[in-house]
Every structure is written in structure tokens, then in C-alpha cells.
Amino acid sequence: GENVEQHPSTLSVQEGDSAVIKCTYSDSASNYFPWYKQELGKGPQLIIDIRSNVGEKKDQRIAVTLNKTAKHFSLHITETQPEDSAVYFCAAISNFGNEKLTFGTGTRLTIIP
Amino acid sequence: DAGVIQSPRHEVTEMGQEVTLRCKPISGHNSLFWYRQTMMRGLELLIYFNNNVPIDDSGMPEDRFSAKMPNASFSTLKIQPSEPRDSAVYFCASSLEGVREKLFFGSGTQLSVL
User: How far, in Å, CA of A92 to CA of A35, rounded?
Assistant: First the structure.
């Protein structure tokens, strides 16, 4: 099955600076990579996703890059704001067998005012 | 739409008791997922329904866990008998169709088994 590793587990960034979270996956057949944000006491919420036919996708201050050769993808948040503080999860889906969304272990991002 | 609705928000029970968690997916969504979240294991898929039919239950820990979806607007996750190691946050999520669509998560049920 798919194995997704996520780094770092915690990240503190000064407000206004950029934050980068990285994930690697094991199944070369994986072709869909969403990112979820989880605020305290709430369920995860999709913030951006990327499919394997593109290398980068951007939505305002958030961008995701994908390197299929190296089997890794990254989340980039620019001009960070206090409301960006949350736990972020990457995930991957492969086509092998029953499709299953496998989540990374999460990154706790703290924006320092 | 009110989003995915889960109940109860918190449940405290004693070991050996039966626990039933409830979920109402977003109207019109054909897929429903039950996830468990713990510090040690992160977010784990327990079971996935499509059009009320279980598609993948390989994540259900053992026979003590069972899930049903009697209609498109309601699902239950039952643990009988409950054990302290079942303590976790249980999330229900729904999507329009399958896992490649945006998953909408409920607020979760915090379960504590004493």
C-alpha cells in the first residue's frame, strides 16, 4: 500500500515569512495529492490539491509543487498570517487496488506575530 | 448546507460498553468515510461507503467495530464492546463521488473509554 511521510512535524515561522512542508510517497502509481488544514477542535479542510499531470498549482498565498520522479510534493505558504496556524496534512491516492487516501502524519505550523 | 453533522461531539464511556457514533453527510454526496485520529497513528480510514454500499472496510480494526449506512443521509459506527485503546477522535467525511473529490469532514466525536 501507499506510505506517506511528512516533514517537519512542527514548524514555527515569523508572520510574513514563508513556510514549506514536504511529503514523500512510496507508490509510483499515486496520482492525486491533496493538502488538508486542521484547526483546533475541527475536522480537516481541503486547501489545495494537485494531480500528477501538472508540476505546480497555486491559489493566492498557497502553492503546491510535485516532483513525480523523486516522489515528493511540497506545500508553500507565502506571507504567512496568524490564521495560518494549524496542523497541515498531506495525502496521496494510488490507483493500485481499492483507491484509498493515505494521510501523512501532519505538521503543526505556528505563526509568530 | 450545514455540512457534515456528527453526534455526539463528546462521548465518555466505561470499558465494555457499547458506543454508537452518528453521521449525517452532506445532501447529494454519494460517498461517506469514517476516519479515526490519534496522536500515535494519525488519520486512519476505517471504512468507505459509496451509494450506501461498503467499498473498503480493510481499516476496521476488528470485529468489535461495525458500520452501517441504511440510507443516503445517515451512517453509524458502532463499537461493542469498547476498550480504552479505542479512545480517539472519530471523523465522518463525505464527498460527491469517491476519494478523488474534496472530502468534507464533520467536527468529529471525541471518544474516551475509561
Answer: 9
